[in-house]
TrEMBL record, chain B:
Residues 5-253 form the ABC transporter domain. This is Phosphate transport system ATP-binding protein. Keywords: ATP-binding, Nucleotide-binding, Translocase, Transport. GO terms for molecular function: ATP binding; ATP hydrolysis activity; phosphate transmembrane transporter activity. PROSITE patterns: ABC_TRANSPORTER_1, ABC_TRANSPORTER_2. InterPro entries: AAA+_ATPase, ABC_transporter-like_ATP-bd, ABC_transporter-like_CS, P-loop_NTPase, PstB-like. Pfam families: ABC_tran. One of its GO terms (cellular component) is membrane. It comes from Parafrankia irregularis. Signal peptide: none annotated. GO terms for biological process: phosphate ion transmembrane transport.
Length: 419, 258
């Protein structure tokens, strides 16, 4: 007798389901051997599985399958219903001329792997390989397009602090752009990580349940706001009101070189861009950190509490160490977004090409913003130059991610996941 | 070090659900008391009220009194954090902090108490691990992760962590239910050893274990699902297992629980 079990466990469920519906609606009509039909997706069976089936179960399964209306019974479990629905398609096609099916196929027959398995395996394989090919092609594209521009460059690409890619002769360098990219992204993270982790901890541990879910929703919503909105907000709303803060920083923290404006004035600065970036990456880091903190086993939290930890000590002892790798990963995603952010930065920053540690002056630019600003009126060499700068961003992002992974892997055996 | 526990009129709730009602019992110092009873009878709940871990769950609350050497744990102004520093707890599943080494796990409680001196910490680690019968097995790898030990070793590490802060009372919530028989034996030996220093309360589903390790036994039960659990009988272990007063106790220990 039978049948098309995907796995013994699955068949077991179906057997249970059919016991509650003795499927008396149809007698065991002879079923055609379906193993020969390649178009029927889940009909093939390996000998081992088939033999391991209890005969009574197998019968029950085929009866379930043969029931003309397989969803009629209301007392089945969801699993058995879905199994029956899945089955009802091929069986209903052959209804009427069913013959008993063999438990074990012909001696010597090869175990067949279902079409669905093959299809799915190839689908996932294609997706995996496709991704690698895509990355390779992107790198290749960047290198090829960049090459011409780089060979025509009269300056040193890595040290020159100007961007005259459209001039003749072209003189351009990525130094200032790279500096601006890294500086703004790092400051953005420095602002965003503590706040995001705080939000995540508040949601997972302190907030009442209802408030927690509302807050979680708002955080997710923030992540969905398009970056141009943040950019416009930064330019039109934040920038005019931000000079006071920047002056205050200059007045009281001017002894830190970062905040020393000297004789100049404050304005649409790297710091302003960083704040906008921080707000943009905040929801990503907060949402992922929240997920990580939610995964801290309740037993670890109770262990800390039972030792006489206050809530904060419990967080410090059990929650943060456990969540640290996840928070690092989340921060790296945030860093990636901050470094690659284009339009918001392009709107806020005044596009200058000098390296300055002073983050309050109206100056600065980033690779992505420069591409957005310059691509429209760039000539061939200019485009190649922009693409070359994009390649630098690509490599830097990759290096940053590799470092992050190494950091996480270093303490892997202490992560609580390795054991 | 060891302390008398007097529970009077204790009722514990999970939200609106009354989990256990009107428990009265006195636990003598330096003794081992076993809580037995069917699932859902509230024995773990009662245990968790003894170090105010019950209220950690949202909506959970307690009525009644728990006196620790005459001092009410639920009196006004009593800080649960202080209670828990005096009443150690070992859980059903071994739960060493996975991000910490064996050494760090043992001193976790001491660090919370502000002990920083390296020599003192070293001393207490050795003492506690020896106290937990684990020292010989781990002394050469104190800096390895605690989560890398076997289940039984992890549980003994948790006991070492609990006794490192020198509590007055040690609560054990089914400490062996996730362990194999050999590890269980090791824990039971350990309980025999610890009884001279601590007041120990152990929840167990294993009646042989209760009869092996405890001097007094409290049998909890409930009429039917949804009813609060109640203390049915509390007596010496030998009495409970040989000559129980209550019919329900007898049914339960003889396996005729219906």
């Amino acid at each position: 007798m039978t049948t098309e079990p995907d796995s013994p466990a699955d068949a077991g469920t179906r057997g249970t389901g059919s016991q509650t519906t003795p499927a008396a609606t149809e007698p065991s009509v002879p079923a055609q051997p379906t193993a020969e039909k390649p178009d029927e997706v889940s009909t093939d069976v390996t000998p081992g599985e088939a033999v391991s089936e209890a005969v009574s179960e197998s019968e029950a399964v085929s009866e379930t399958a043969a029931a003309s209306d397989s969803t009629a019974s209301s007392d089945r479990t969801a699993a058995s219903v879905s199994a029956a629905v899945r089955e009802s398609v091929p069986v209903s096609e052959t209804k009427g001329d069913l013959t008993p099916r063999e438990i074990s196929p012909e001696p010597g027959a090869k175990p067949k792997i279902g079409l669905a398995d093959t299809l799915f395996k190839n689908l996932t394989r294609t997706a995996g390989i496709g991704l690698l090919v895509l990355i390779g092609l992107i790198a290749l594209f960047l290198v090829l397009r960049a090459w011409d521009a780089l060979s025509a460059n009269e300056g040193n690409f890595f040290t020159t602090e100007t961007w005259g890619a459209n001039d003749t002769p072209p003189v351009f360098g990525v130094a200032a752009l790279l500096f601006g990219t890294l500086l703004s992204a790092v400051i953005a993270l420095a602002i965003a990580i503590p706040v995001a982790v705080g939000i995540a901890l508040f949601i997972t541990i302190y907030a009442p349940r209802r408030m927690a879910s509302a807050l979680g929703y708002v955080v997710d919503l923030l992540a969905a706001v398009p970056s141009v909105i943040y950019g416009l907000w930064g330019l039109l709303v934040l920038a005019p009101h931000f000079n006071g803060t920047q002056m205050w920083l200059n007045d009281y923290f001017g002894w830190i070189p970062l905040f020393d404006v000297g004789e100049g004035s404050v304005g649409r600065s790297v710091f302003l861009a960083s704040v906008v970036l921080a707000i943009m990456v905040l929801p990503i880091i907060a949402a992922l950190s929240r997920e990580v903190f939610l995964q801290v086993p309740i037993t670890h939290r109770e262990a800390a509490l039972a030792l006489g930890a206050t809530r904060w000590e419990m967080i410090r002892t059990a929650v943060i160490p456990y969540g640290k790798p996840g928070v690092i990963s989340a921060s790296m995603l945030g860093l990636g977004r901050a470094m690659g952010e284009t339009i918001a930065v392009a709107l806020v920053l005044p596009s200058t090409f000098n390296i300055s540690w002073n983050i309050l002056k109206p100056a600065g630019n980033t690779i992505a913003a420069n591409v957005a600003n310059g691509f429209g009126e760039a000539n061939d060499i200019g485009r190649g130059a922009l693409i070359a700068s994009g390649l630098v961003l690509f490599v830097v992002t990759m290096v940053v991610n590799m470092i992050a992974r190494a950091v996480i892997a270093r303490r892997r055996e202490f992560s609580g996941r390795a054991a | 070090m060891a302390t008398r526990i007097e529970i009077s009129g204790l009722t514990a709730y999970y939200g609106k659900f009354k989990a256990v009602a009107d428990v009265n019992l006195t636990i003598e110092p330096k003794s081992v008391t076993a809580f037995i009873g069917p699932s859902g009878c509230g024995k773990s709940t009662v245990l968790r009220t003894l170090n105010r871990m019950h209220e950690v769950l949202p909506g959970a609350r307690v009525e009644g009194k728990v006196l620790l050497d005459g001092e009410d744990l639920y009196g006004p102004g009593v800080d649960p954090v202080n209670v828990r520093r005096n009443v150690g707890m070992v859980f059903q599943r071994p739960n060493p902090f996975p991000t910490m080494s064996i050494y760090e796990n043992v001193i976790a409680g001491l660090k919370l108490n502000g002990v920083r001196k390296k020599s003192l910490l070293d001393e207490r680690v050795e003492e506690s691990l020896k106290g937990a019968n684990l020292w010989d097995e781990v002394k050469d790898r104190l800096n390895r992760p605690g989560a890398g030990l076997s289940g039984g070793q992890q549980q003994r590490l948790c006991i070492a962590r609990a006794i490192a802060v020198e509590p007055q009372v040690l609560l054990m919530d089914e400490p062996c239910s996730a362990l194999d028989p050999i590890s269980t034996l090791a824990i039971e030996d350990l309980i025999q050893k610890l009884r001279s220093s601590y007041t120990i309360v152990i929840v167990t589903h294993n009646m042989q274990q209760a009869s092996r390790v405890s001097e007094t036994t409290a049998f909890f039960s409930l009429e039917k699902t949804g009813d609060p659990g109640r203390l049915v009988e509390y007596s010496t272990t030998s009495q409970i297992f040989s000559n129980p007063k209550e019919k329900r106790t007898e049914d339960y220990i003889s396996g005729r629980f219906g």
